[in-house]
Amino acid sequence: MERPWLIDIDAIGIDGDDTLWHSERHFSVTEERFAELLAPWAPAEDLAARLLHTERSNLAVFGYGVKAFVISMIETAIEVTGGDLPVGAIEEIIGWGKELHTHPTVVLPGVVDALSSAAGRRLILVTKGDLFHQESKVAASGLADRFEAIEIVSEKDPATYAAVLKRHGVAPERFVMIGNSVRSDVLPLVELGGRAVHVPHEVTWGHEMSDAAPDDAAWWRVPSLGAALG
After folding, report:
1. Rg of the chain over all Cα atoms, to the nearest angstrom
2. Predicted confidence (pLDDT) per residue in 176-193, tens digit
3. What digits encode the pLDDT tens for the residues 83-106?
4. Angle at CA 25, nearest 5°, toward 41 and 129?
5. Structural domains in the chain, sorted by start
């Protein structure tokens, strides 16, 4: 399999959540529990849309991660119930957040072999979210020593990637980013003049979805990290 995205590359960036280890499926299970909790007040589909709207509205204030998710669930629940949300329900939502924070980090199948195939290349882990939680997941994954550097960022936009590349002395056109989110791992790099590879995951958060189609001059879609790295 030819991999044009790896030609004349000085460094490879790799995403963490749902590229190296499972993440979103745990949030999805929690959303299902949330829908069951609030079923007396709102249908699941309507509740999911309202929660996503609240999460997006809160990004500029709380950022990404479990804490922001919990706050958005509580805020949505208060709105849906007209302020009559039982205290016990709030305690239950907070409990789900604690579970998410302490859930074991499970590395995705094939990841270790894929990283081994890239031994000798400059690998930079670029992951987004709450600093404490991301540090915990990186440590628990056992993958930290596979990377030359680990970058935990609050957002993945062109400015953030430009700053990361500058820190590591890599020109955008000599860098490729690999991840499961078109919005966060692909489009910002294309805008900078870099390359990217989209590795879809079985579950994707609504905010990260994009209907942008691959452009083989700038980014590609492959089925696995192994297919991306060789």
Report:
1. 19
2. 999 999 999 999 999 999
3. 988 999 999 999 999 988 888 899
4. 95
5. 4-21+107-229 (3.40.50.1000), 24-102 (1.10.150.240)
